[in-house]
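Review form for a predicted model. The reviewer records the input and the model, then writes brief findings.
Reviewer: anonymous (R2)
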Amino acid sequence: MLKHTSSENLLENVESILPIIKQGAEASEQSGRLQEDVLDALFEQRLFRLFISEKYQGETTDLPTALKVFEKVASADGATGWLVMIGAGGGLFSGFLEEKAARDIFLPERAAIAGSGMPSGEAKAITDGFEVSGRWGYASGSDYATWFTANCKVVGKEDEIVSIAVPADKVIQHQTWDVFGMKATGSHDFSIDSVTVPKTYTFSLFEKPLLDDPIFFCPLETLASLTFASVAIGITQHAVDEFIAFAKQKQISETQSLMNVEDIKQRCDQTEQLLHDSRKRLYQQSEQVWQAAEKKRHPSDALRETITEEAIEMVQSCVKRVDALKVHSGMMAVFTTSPFGRAWRDLHTLSQHVILTPKL
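Model under review:
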């Protein structure tokens, strides 16, 4: 039985765990991984199962609602929002794997996928599968992942790429995620050394999905642009909320707080307006993508291109607006214990992702 009876119920349940996420954010950042009570809350609410097919006990959540989930979680803590988004995204593969493999990977309640989209490995064809070796970077959630996915170049076949899934005990993890933001995502490197991967545990997102749930008709790059932007919006909301709270209590004279300064009010208003406009556009686009997916169609090339371009613009605009607040945040921005400072660092780190980088 599905835990969430409706989109409204899902969002209410997400709201109920935000205090746990906020309370654990500082310790998660310091340790470089989510606190156990935070991770338990995410599993309890089945937030890594939003895109897993109901056939494999998933939540089968519509895209606009999923974006609201990612935004809500990110408004409490950016790294946690990112991990929920990435973890849920792994459920997309349940529609492209053969049933035996999909059941093995996704049926466990605490199933979690980490991986990399870069074709950094080699797959040598053998009887009924491949022998795989390679090293991949930026596997968010690697600390608690039960399975890893990766892309490999097929040896002897020019330009052919195969996606693989391997259990966590076949993977070597490398502690490489030494960064100033998004620390708790644990986005470490991982490697595989001559591991046999049966053909049933390989897949391609460029082929027709084996299941017809609408989410499987959302192209991966389009899904990434929309979901990354939703996390950025959540982080930006967190940053402006923290700044306003700071500005209201920061006295610059006996009779005036920082928030009473016209320039400061204007900067906060501009950030809130950006968030309003970005949300409106993001959810309009997600509705268009979802309407096509419900008809078992991919969105048009024009819509996909627009989403890619506007996601970059949204995120870079969020960075600029939060930077404009940071200038007047004093020393609050530099302490690792500062929620505003953490949001600022997380947003800058997120904005460096290749999908969100302005094109040359």
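Findings: The chain has a mean pLDDT of 96.
Further findings: Residues 49 and 58 are 5 Å apart (CA to CA).
Recommendation: see findings above.
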